[in-house]
Design a protein that fits this description.
- The structure holds two protein chains of two kinds.
- Chain A is of the alpha/beta class.
- Helices cover 35% and strands 17% of the residues of chain A.
- Chain A has a three-stranded parallel beta sheet with strand order 3-2-4, with no helix packed on it.
- Chain B contains nine helices and four strands.
- The radius of gyration of chain B is 33 Å and the shape is elongated.
- The chains are: A alpha/beta, B mainly alpha.
- The interface between A and B is large, with 48 and 38 residues.
- Strand 1 of chain A pairs parallel with strand 1 of chain B, so a sheet runs across the interface.
Amino acid sequence: MKLEQTLRVLSGADEGFDEFSMEELHRRLGDRSLTILDVLPREAYNSEHIPGAISLPLAEVNSRAGEVLARLDAEIAVYCGSAT
Amino acid sequence: MRHVHGGIAEWKEAGLPIESAPVEATANDAALGLESRVAAVRGTSAQRGIFREAVFDLVDRLSTTHLFAAWMLLILACAASYWLLSYAGLSALTEKGKSVAADTGGLWTAIYFSFITALSVGYGDILPMGAARILAVAEAAGGLLIFGLLIAKFVSHRQDLLVRQIHAVTFEERLDRVQTNLHLVVSELLAIAAACADGSGQPRRCGPRLESTVLIFVGELRVIHHLLYEPEQTLDESVLSALLANLSSALNMMGEVMQELPRNFPRSSALNDALRTVSVLAQDICAECVPQVYADGLKILMDRIQQSARTIALHQE
């Protein structure tokens, strides 16, 4: 169930998710209970990403979300290119 | 799950830290991401080790010729310094109580003294005085250090050769084992399909059999995945294509068996985990995802492997 919800949110079908503030993310960079997810293309991830982020390009969300996100009930902070 | 609204653009504008190295570009699981994050936190303490690593690296990279040249340079530079000190009017070296003159003969004496000092022979026929004493001690220490490194290089050279030979032999043996095991997996899968797929067989016996076959397959698949992503040794293309062809047929067979298994076939959690790993690893094998560029025949094989992996993924719970 959780996976479906995640996929819906990631693929943009569901707008209902809360905002994660920059300050909180910065404060919790070393926090193991938080998974940071980079949905930008892999090249963008390779050139720069928030420290500790995991790469899951939007194009691969449907096929790979299950493998990349080991624990779907864990807290996830997702980010993309800019505020759009 | 929450969304970081500003994205990476605002993150950068705020001047917050950015990581640029592809820490784990494939990111097969979240554990890898965690590791990199822990590593980032530990980074500061690791920096202390960097200097030491850099020194070891430098010594590793220097060839014996370089070290010998450095050693000679040290000796000659010190000899020149002794001579210049006497030239400047300071009595740097003395022989039988008299200062060594700053002429051609004095230069040869300085070179001779320099060698005797750097080799830690120290006959004592020529003695350093004043500032030359400090230089002589430093030269002896430095000369011994470089000489030691030089000897160590000579000794390790032969060992390196041996280690490399042993590596090559074990590597070949490992590849042979991969081939044999893949063959075993294919024939086991055939046998399982014949005995268990029609439902009349005994699923209780087939379960463990299938499980162990899949587990062996996972191990060999990991080896091939590693070969493609982090090749330690360059592989002959014919060897690689044989490996990939075998892998592809085993994967195909596995897909077929999974399709033919009765619906009520008991699946243990180990089997499910192994199948998951198989599909994840095998989907990573495709001509475009692999870091190196291979010949067309290999590319086709890789893409076929990815295709079969997708079929297996479809038949998972």
